[in-house]
Amino acid sequence: MAEAKPDVAPVSWTRTMTDMEFELFSNMIYSVTGIKMPPVKKLMLTSRLSKRMKALEIKSYSQYYDYICSPEGRSAEFHRMIDAVTTNKTDFFRESDHFSILAERVIPELTARTRFMQGNPINIWSAGCSTGEEPYTIGMVASDYFGENRSSVSILATDISTRVLETAVNGIYTENAIKPIPLYLRKKYILRGKGDKAGLFRISPDIRKMVTFRKLNLMDKRLIPGAEMDIVFCRNVIIYFDRGTQAELFDKFYDTMAPGGYLFIGSSETLHGISDKFIPAGPTVYRKK
Ligand SMILES: C[S@@+](CC[C@H](N)C(=O)[O-])C[C@H]1O[C@@H](n2cnc3c(N)ncnc32)[C@H](O)[C@@H]1O
Questions:
Q1: Does residue 144 carry a catalytic annotation?
Q2: How far apart are CA 212 and CA 210, in angstroms?
Q3: 217 CA: nearest ligand 1 atom
Q4: Backbone angles phi, psi at 158, to 5 degrees
Q5: Which CATH architecture fits 12-85?
Q6: 0.90 cut: is pTM over it?
Q7: Domain spanning 97-172+205-288: which CATH class is it, in words?
Q8: CA separation for the pair 156, 233 (Å, rounded)
Q9: What confidence tier does 16 reach under pLDDT thresholds 50, 70, 90?
Q10: pLDDT tens for residues 236-273?
């Protein structure tokens, strides 16, 4: 009997990346996204990019780099390279203390401000929203607070990665993903899939309508979120940036925020020694001066 052929040919595109190729990619990724790629990340970068090269049947990292820089590659592949190099880990109710602070302190305080009393919504921005768990968590918490008056809150959710935004807009998650959502909120705001969607769960239309998703690169010279922000969530994003990039980003957030607005960052992140334009207002929660 003839020996069965392996269905995957031996692949020369899994060859190692030279130091020069690594430098080309890490410089490009840093200048476009702000994400630092120190040499310890070479293996990770190799493995993530090799998947794209395999899909395109490109056999060397230099060739892939040239393709990305070509007019054709810039429009067809560049965003996929960005998708491949971003880290998108997220969860519903991640670092859940923040959502208690939001519901118990921040929203009540903001509703007492003149701007809100004059009929303006509370503007919340989830910057680096990944697959949507963070802005939908904010939506559920705010909706639980305001009941039918959901238009009291407007949520903008942005990310640099096209792929995660597609998932976010769909708002469909696995049973495992929705587990951190408290049961009473699941009952109110999560729909159970039927037929070919059995085993999957979708965020209710009421909550999905509260969130506007948009592609936005936080490295843009000026951030134009479209409204003055009362609250910014930028959690677990700046860990990938160096201190200079972090400082520039906080300056830009400062410019987009209302006086006394709140900034939430990740529990392993800090503004200490990076920006003095905000004052501490809780565990990794800050207020614009
Ligand atoms: C680890 S996720 C954090 C998601 C969510 N904020 C959380 O804490 O669960 C980081 C997200 O930041 C996004 N990101 C990284 N660099 C970015 C940039 N320059 N502009 C916009 N988004 C960026 C990534 O695509 C990724 O989805």
A1: no
A2: 7
A3: 20
A4: -130, 155
A5: Orthogonal Bundle (1.10)
A6: yes
A7: alpha beta
A8: 10
A9: confident
A10: 999 999 999 999 999 999 999 999 999 999 999 999 99
143-186 pLDDT, tens per residue?
999 998 999 999 999 999 999 999 999 999 999 999 999 999 99
Listed in sequence order, the DSSP H helices in 57-132 are 61-69, 71-76, 78-85, 97-101, 107-111, 114-117
Check pocket membership of 33 for ligand 1, CB cut-off 6 A.
yes
In angstroms, the Cα distances linking 101 to 95, 106, 282 are 11, 6, 8
Average pLDDT score over residue span 188-197: 97
Q: Report pLDDT for 1.
A: 43
Phi, psi torsion values for 157, nearest 5 degrees: -130, 125
For 217-241, the DSSP string reads -TTSSS---SS-EEEEEE-SSGGGS
pLDDT for the residue 14:
57
Element (H, E) at 20: helix 19-33
* Strand pairing class (211-215; 153-159): parallel
Nearest to 64 by CA among 9, 10, 21: 21
On the question of a common fold for 12-85 and 97-172+205-288, the answer reads: no
Ligand 1 pocket residue status of 164, Cβ below 6 Å: yes
Query: CB–CB of 157/211 below 8 Å?
Result: yes
What the block records as the tokens of 203 is 């965020």
Question: In percent, how much of the chain has pLDDT > 90?
Answer: 94
The domain spans of the chain are: 12-85, 97-172+205-288
In percent, the amount of the chain with pLDDT more than 70 equals: 95
What is the edge-to-edge ordering of all strands in the sheet holding 211-215? 211-215, 153-159, 122-127, 229-234, 257-265, 285-288, 278-282
Task: Say how many Å lie between the CA of residue 128 and the centre of ligand 1.
Answer: 3
The pLDDT of residue 198 is above 70: yes
Q: Is 163 noted as a catalytic residue in this protein? A: no
